[in-house]
Each structure stands twice: as C-alpha cells, then as structure tokens.
Amino acid sequence: MLISVMLDSMGIGLIMPVMPELIQEVEGEGIGAAAVWGGILATIFAAMQFLFGPTLGSLSDRFGRRPILIGSLVVMAFSYVLMALALSITFLLVARIIGGITAATQATSAAYMADISKPHEKAANFGLIGAAFGVGFVLGPMIGGLLAEYGTRAPFWAAAGLAAANAVFGFFVLPETVTDKIRRPFQWARANPLGALRNIGALPELKKLLLISFVYTMAFFVYPGVWAYFGAERFGWSPGMIGLSLGLFGVGIAIVQGLLIRPILRRIGDRNAVILGLSIDVVAFVALGFVTTGWVALALTPLTALGSIAGPALQGIMSRTAADNQQGELQGTVSSINAVATILAPLMVTQTFWYFTDGGGPLYAPGAPFLLSALLTVFCIAVFVQTPRPQRARVI
User: Buried b vs exposed e over 240-258: b needs ≥16 C-beta within 10 Å?
Assistant: First the structure.
C-alpha cells in the first residue's frame, strides 16, 4: 500500500513544475494570469473531491478498499492523458473534473492504514503514508523537471503511465482489509458530503478537530498552490530548479514522517506533536514570506519539513475517535472537508500572489501568501489548545 501511495504522489509531483508553462502555452498569458488559472483548476479538482469523497469512502466501507483504489487509479491515468493532449484550457478543466471525481487514493489509503493499525499505532502509521508520499514527491518533481526539457507534455504522459502501473501493481499485490466484521451497509444518506458530515459530526470531540483540519489544509496549500509561481517570480527559478526544490521538500517530509515521527510521538505524545508541528509551520511561513534569495528558501527546507508532524498526529487523534466500521466514512469526510479547503485555498493564495506581484497591490510582495498561511495556522493552534482529549466511539 505504501508503494502505491509513493507511485501516486510521483504522478502528482511530475506535473507540478510544468503547470505554469502549460497554462501559459494554452492561454498565451503571463505568469500572474497562469497562477489564477492554476488556482481555478485546483479548485475544480477539489470541488469534485468534496462532492464524491464521502461516496467513495462509504463505498470502500461496503465493498472494500481495494476495488475503490484500483478503479480510481485507472480513471486518474485517463485524466492525465487528457491533460497531455490539451489544446485549450477547456481540456484542462475537463481533465481536472474527471481526476477530482476519482481522487480517492489518499482517503482510501488512510482508511486502509487505519484498518491494519492498532489504536496506539495510528498516528505513527499515518506518518508512514506521509513518508511514502514524501518519497514520491522527491522523485516526481525532479523527474518532472527533467522531462520538461522534452516538452511541457512529457511529464503528463509519464504521470498517466505511473497511474496505470500503480493500478496494475495494486491489482496483483494489494490485499483487502475490509472484513465482514467491520463491513458497513452502503447508505446514500451517509454517502454525500452533508450526510457524512452530519453523522461524523455527531461525535462532539471531532467537530473542532475537523475545523482545524479544514483551516490547516487551507494554510498548507500555499506550497502546492503558489510554490512554482513564487519560485519563478521571486528567484527566477527554471522548471528544473522548481522540481529540485520540491524534491528537497519531499526528502525532508519522508525523513520526518518515516523516521522521526515515532520517537517524537513516544517522547511528547500526539497532542504536543500537533502543537509543535503547527508552531514550526508558523515560523516557516513567516520566514518564507520575507525571504529574498533562493538559497535561504532552500535552507529553510528542514524546518518546513519538521512541521509536517502535525498532520499525522492530528489524523491519528481523529481516527482513534471514530469506530472501526467508520474509518472509510471518516476518511471520506475528512477528504471532503479538506476538499472544501482546497476549493477555497487555491483562489485565496493565487489571487494573493497575483495582487502582490502584478495585480496593482500597494507593494511588491510575492511572499504574501505565506504570511496569510501563518495567520491561519495561528488560528489552528488557538482552537486546538482548547480542544479536550476525545474518547473512542463504539462500533455503529
């Protein structure tokens, strides 16, 4: 399963360094306008995740993680093919709609990991998912940046091939984890965003945690949302350099979540790990908001990576709160809530970037989106410290 997550993140990372150039190629506009279109495409992708995430999560509770994961990867490969063939922004919009509908890989993988983990292992094992994602994120952007030398379409063909290979790999080696003991009947009333949120939200301890997850997702989206545009504008980085910087970030996440998170959790516990990770993120966001040289931004990579301990720790707390037969529903709901955040976040960070670069803002500040993310993360800390320790729910 971890190999599947790694391959999937490689496909995502492959296309990131060339998205600015592809959008400019099909639209014929500047970097600021390309960032706005990039935000729109990401918003559409997230909107589809919001609408269909709970449905796929509930389907995985009923029919198993394996068929949902494999089917999602097959259709994702098709969406990358569409992007590789795109001659207009309309093609890209259609591809993002299709891809977003079946983007269940992360939620299904998280539910899979919850199925095979003991309660005290959940946070650390969610960190393994993050580590696998980080390894893929090391290789994906670096390879994508290199493939960009052969044209803006090459990384998309490679991403399609990876998604297809991932589906084949999962078909032959991925065992099913949903047993009759935890299998839950599929109910449409719980398989839509509002129904799933209402059902999961009935667990009072989860409400504030879901709010934190929502706001933190908005804040953290500044990296995938504007990093390529920020690097090109502030430091004059090429696609290859952008890919390298994203690869270094992925290395840091893989080290932190694969090796460091377990001793950190044993020493300070998951609640303190959430607070520590969020606090580190605030410092990193503020620093990136004012950085003016590329080597300083790269030097901040270990700090930004260390902040990634917050996500698995928070996810582990939420997973222990839900019942065993709710794991798919919970992860689908979290995916849907976070999708709402990623509907809003791309527009928020790219519009902020545009306004403070070539949109007529009061000052030139490409790092403004990172300062906004710092404020959002401070809010997350304030809410979390007031949240009581949740109790584990019974099977329903």
Answer: bbbbbbbbbbbbbbbbbbb
